[in-house]
Design a protein that fits this description.
single chain, mainly beta, Lipocalin, 1 helix, elongated
Length: 146
């Protein structure tokens, strides 16, 4: 009888915990982070002497404000310490509720949620946007406000 009660308790605990693991994360709020980027060319976030052939390692401090969210879809605006451009972005949360892909006017995001208030953000653009620059960066971002 004790074994039946123990097994039942484990099954109930797993059933109660499962929805929490599958919950779509709330991304709304301000996210901020600092890191390094590799840059070919120049754009508002990575100014300086542009060179289409010589990569430059640049510091970046970015802020993303997630203004809205509808289920797995989120949207907002991005800026950096170098340029308050308020570029629009869109993100889509994958079914694992930890992986996010997204885009802005000239690049793409690959994001992994580490916790409710921390993410690793990777960003790239390939030179086909208005600035013709090529950028790649990955760094940690933390939620500053909800």
């Amino acid at each position: 009888m004790k074994l039946v009660i123990l097994i039942s308790a484990v099954i109930i605990a797993a059933a109660v915990e499962a929805p929490a693991q599958n919950a779509i994360p709330d991304l709304k709020g301000m996210w901020s982070g600092k890191g390094k980027a590799i840059v070919l060319g120049s754009n508002p976030h990575h100014s300086g002497a542009p060179s289409p052939d010589t990569p430059r390692v640049r510091d970046i401090e970015a802020t993303h404000v997630v203004e809205g969210q509808d289920g797995q879809l989120a949207w907002g605006r991005s800026s950096s310490a170098a340029a308050d451009t308020k570029e629009p972005f869109v993100w889509s949360v994958a079914n694992d509720n930890k992986s996010i892909i997204g885009a802005d006017p000239d690049g793409y995001f690959r994001i992994t949620l580490i916790s409710a208030d921390r993410m690793e953000k990777c960003y790239v653009h390939n030179g086909s946007g208005p600035t013709r620059s090529i950028v790649a960066a990955c760094y940690i971002m933390d939620r500053v406000t909800r």
